[in-house]
Specification:
Keywords: Oxidoreductase. This is SDR family oxidoreductase. This protein is of the alpha/beta class and 247 residues long. It has a single domain, classed as 3-Layer(aba) Sandwich (Rossmann fold), CATH 3.40.50.720. It is 42% helix and 16% strand. The protein is built from seven helices and seven strands, in the order βαββαβαβαβαααβ. Strands 3-2-1-4-5-6-7 form a seven-stranded parallel sheet, with helices on both faces. Helix 3 links the parallel strand 4 and strand 5. The longest helix is centred in the middle third of the chain and has 29 residues.
């Protein structure tokens, strides 16, 4: 039974990922400021952790390692977004988005890397986004954090190989509570129309990618950004509404 930490595991992609790993027999720890939105699997434990608090993340990882005797997989998934144009950006909002989306990944990965390297194995994963690969309107701070995650993935992979494999997943539009809260029906339909697959991804489809990257079948994959977007970045026209893909 592996020990797995997933941040932002109470809803959306995170909840689906908690479900996937727990169903496959792993012991999962969900780091989230909110409790799970629905019934959690028996092998999933919620810990109230704000990933923007570096010290809290470090302490929570240490608790898990002490309790379980090690750590096999850490998935930095927690993320937030606030839809606004660049002229509407405020320091308060931008700092919160960066603290959660980028520094939250860094905090979890740094804390997890130590016990993994000591044990001689481990997987560090994160939720990036197609928004980190090219510009999308109305999400400047969010986009920048996702581009940062892709860069962190490459750097951590170079430094931690061959002991720890490090990868990220870049979803396109995903039908999550965050997406539904920000988008009208018209915006959702417009997004579907510009994706070659003509639909949003469902959270379990992203969870399946994380489970694969954490498996022995993916032992030779590191430093990579796996795009799951229904063909969006292959050349579809960007909508005036911006992109989905937020976790």
């Amino acid at each position: 039974m592996r020990t797995v930490i997933i941040s932002g595991g109470s809803s959306g992609i995170g909840a689906a990922t908690v479900q996937r790993f727990a169903e496959q027999g792993d012991q999962v720890f969900n780091f989230d400021v909110q409790p799970p939105a629905g019934p959690a699997p028996a092998q999933a434990v919620w810990k109230k952790v704000d990933v923007a608090d570096w010290g809290a993340v470090t302490a929570a990882v240490r608790e898990v390692v002490d309790e379980r005797g090690g750590l096999d997989v850490a998935i930095a998934n927690a993320g937030i977004s606030v839809r606004h144009g660049v002229l509407e950006l405020t320091e308060e909002t931008a700092r919160r988005v960066i603290d959660v989306n980028l520094l939250g990944v860094l905090a979890l990965w740094v804390a997890a890397a130590a016990p993994m390297t000591a044990a001689g194995h481990g997987r560090l994963l994160a939720t990036a986004s197609v928004n980190g690969r090219r510009g999308y309107p109305n999400y400047a701070d969010y986009n920048a954090t996702k581009a940062g995650i892709i860069s962190l993935t490459q750097t951590f992979a170079l430094e931690l190989s061959p002991v720890v494999q490090v990868n990220c997943v870049s979803p396109g539009a995903v039908l999550t509570p965050m997406q539904l809260a920000e988008y009208t029906d018209e915006m959702l339909a417009d997004t579907n129309a510009r994706i070659p697959a003509r639909r949003h991804a469902m959270p379990p489809e992203i969870a399946a990618a994380f489970h694969y990257l954490a498996s022995e079948e993916a032992a030779f994959i590191t430093g990579q950004d796996l795009v799951i977007d229904g063909g969006e970045v292959a050349g579809a026209t960007t909508s005036a509404f911006g992109s989905g893909g937020r976790a």
